[in-house]
Amino acid sequence: MSNFFTSMKQRQLWILAAMMSLWGNLYAQTTSYTLLETMENGPWPCVYYQLNSNEELEAIVPKAWAGHCVDESDWIYGYGPLSNSYDQFRVTVWASEVQPLLVRRHFTLSHDQIAALAQSQVTLTCSYDENPHFYLNGKSLWSLSGWNDNDYATRTFTSRHKALLREGDNILAVSLPKGAGGGHIDFGLTLTCPDNPDAVEVIKTDDDTDSRVYNLCGMQLSHPTYPGIYIKEGKAILNLP
Questions:
Q1: What is the DSSP string of 157-192?
Q2: pTM for this model (two decimals)
Q3: Residue 26 confidence (pLDDT)
Q4: Are 113 and 120 in contact (CB under 8 A)?
Q5: Is the pLDDT of residue 160 over 80?
Q6: Neighbours of 146 (CB within 10 A)
Q7: φ and ψ of 32, to 5 deg
Q8: 3-class secondary-structure state, position 88
Q9: Tell me: the pLDDT tens digits for 169-203?
Q10: DSSP alpha helices (H): ranges in 43-130?
Q11: DSSP code per residue over 189-241
């Protein structure tokens, strides 16, 4: 029976999302922020460090280079993407067949952006060659195998990933080992936030308010009598069983 209600709740949420996309007065508009640009918007600033061997890369702990407690004075200030080939990714030369690479990029989140994270979407986009491992504020985020040539892979943050974000300065870092053949890295980060995260209200069936509500046919009701989608005070509400 619990599986039945779970499935029914999921269907209700899907219906609500569809209605919100069709009715401009019922859904929360969203705004996208480019936290870190890819090469699509031109070269991007970073600091990077080239190691001597893959063994050195394997031995170094993430907190020693990927977190906040890092002295960047020994790092090289430059611009990405980085590549060893004469291709569209070659803004800065990286001898990927000789040296592993560490890259650090900073971005800032406001108090309001952090407060809205539960309703927001954070997406990492990257083109790589090869075997990158991403870190957020010193914690492992995403590890990939091989390469994707000139294509881009995306990763949407889970709630666990979003919990690593903080108000103010954040660091997205990536490591790549040395390898034969070509090598490059281009990556960016976007944040999509609701303009009004409170536009949808969820109520329980035992709600004792006497506020007038309407069903989707426009009929006025004293209260929601069945599970479903209703309108109250200009908002879409979801009445759960």
A1: --HHHHTT--SEEEEEEEEE---SS--EEEEEEEEE
A2: 0.71
A3: 42
A4: yes
A5: yes
A6: 11
A7: -100, 135
A8: coil
A9: 999 999 999 998 889 999 999 999 987 645 444 44
A10: 54-59, 111-115
A11: EEEEEES-TTSEEEE-TT------EE-TT--EESS--SSEEEEETTEEEEE--
User: β-strand 235-239 against 200-203: which pairing, if any?
Assistant: parallel
- Per-residue pLDDT averaged across 23-48, rounded? 83
Q: How far apart are CA 45 and CA 230, in angstroms?
A: 48
Question: CA angle 72-166-196, nearest 5°?
Answer: 140
Of the candidates 234, 238, 235, the one whose C-alpha atom is nearest the C-alpha of residue 204 is 238
Rounded distance, CA 66 to CA 172, Å? Answer: 8
Q: Which two tokens stand for residue 139?
A: 């914690």
The residues near 231 (Cβ < 8 Å, ≥ 6 apart) are 26, 213, 214, 215, 216, 237
Q: Which token pair is 104?
A: 């650090």
Pairing of strands 82-83, 92-93: parallel
Q: Which two tokens stand for residue 166?
A: 């903080």
Q: How far apart are CA 183 and CA 221, in angstroms?
A: 64
- Say which amino acid occupies 61: V
